[in-house]
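thread from #wetlab-drylab

HS: before we spend reagent money on co-crystallization trials with NAP, can we at least see a predicted complex? here's what I'd submit
DV: go for it
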Amino acid sequence: MPKRISKPAVNTATHQGQEQTSACRVALIGFGTVGRAVAKILCENDNSLLRLTHICNRNVERKKQPWVPSDVVWTDDVESVLKSDVDIVIELIGGLNPAEQIVRCALESGKSVVTANKQLIARHGPDLLQLARSQGCQIEFGASVAGGVPVLPALRVGLCGDRLHGIAGILNGTCNYILSRIENARIPFSEALEEAQARGYAEADASEDLDGGDARAKLAILALAGLHTRVAPESVRARTIRAVDAVDFDYAAQLGCTIRQIARAHLKEETLFAEVGPCLVPTDSPFGRVQRNLNLVVTSGQYGGDMAFLGAGAGGDPTAVAVVSDLMFVAQNLSAGAGKRDVASYVSTPVISSDFETPWYLRFFVRDQPGIVARLAQILAAHHLNIDSLLQKPGFAKASLPFVITLEPCRDSLLHPALEEMSGLEFAIRPCLCLPILR
Ligand SMILES: NC(=O)c1ccc[n+]([C@@H]2O[C@H](COP(=O)([O-])OP(=O)(O)OC[C@H]3O[C@@H](n4cnc5c(N)ncnc54)[C@H](OP(=O)(O)O)[C@@H]3O)[C@@H](O)[C@H]2O)c1
């Protein structure tokens, strides 16, 4: 059985002038993958700041573990936990309902909260920060983006002295696993997805991951913490990775690039340019080197320049480390009497735009016939778009011929009407795949 902390640490003077010691009392709600790993860390390590007092889960009997000390209360009654004298509630059940009510109720009763719930923070983060502030307590959510990679604490502490204007990341391990498998084995998208599902890296319905919903929720949280902007996740454009083909990695390689799902946000005056989707990135860049299901976040600051954070974006143990680190931060603040953190008060609400200016990669699958390139060039010229290069690998069947046109930098809004015009061309056998090239 793991060791149990009995050594208390926070010293507070009593009214008799005696020294009394106490650790923060902590309740864990949600004993699943992350909750169990959090409990393990708390039970196995001497931690004089924290004392686990409750574990709450529905149908809790089946969850009980022999390695949890006998004085910890196991319960399925959330209300009794919220009415108890705990100092910090850890919310690890996920989803919006009833997680939102639990977190609000905890904050309203003056308890601080630690959560890993990206859906909750992406939608209600500014309001919950405001509520915590008004109640003199804290809410921390360091594990809600990039799992075990301490990028949110870095934004909160290590980089708060800079003035950040950009954040970009590989934030979805499922997409990165699939894209790096297609890159390395040149297998079709469907095969890479099946493999990810078989290995537990993708859910049976992986739409949230593949179509960008997961990454844009995380981008909204990064924008809140690093750029101090309130962003509704739905207002950020998300493009799917489903249309990426093995041949795109051949063409990308000819351009010195590979393909990754990138979530990016750039603050320029009152406008936040933000988007999630597959992009060409240089093979030798930090993004190009991220393999399997790892996460990477790069921040850009006015004074400090670029900083990169790489590591395990998911998994019980890495995510639990982020949760316990948040707990310790809250406990230290509580013991120092510094519960009020003024974050919500300087959050702005910018205009959201996806109108980035970049070079572009356009991949066509056509039924070969004379005059195709001339027709496409005519449409591009009519929209004042400049071709940078034309790539065509030999050896493909004439009935389904892939080739690529790259464009010099232009705004998304200029390119869009040209793409619409191209979508009606009789020789196109698939919609054109249009990817930004990030240099
Ligand atoms: N797993 C990761 O790698 C990871 C990474 C980063 C962030 N997160 C976030 O961490 C949170 C927890 O994720 P997880 O992977 O640990 O999820 P999980 O394995 O599904 O665990 C959730 C736990 O909460 C319990 N639960 C659900 N609804 C409940 C309710 N209404 N009342 C009481 N208990 C309830 C579940 O009980 P049952 O056993 O009955 O279902 C389960 O034990 C989520 O917000 C997730 O997005 C996870």
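DV: Confidence is low (pLDDT under 50) at residues 1-20.
HS: ok that's useful, forwarding to the group
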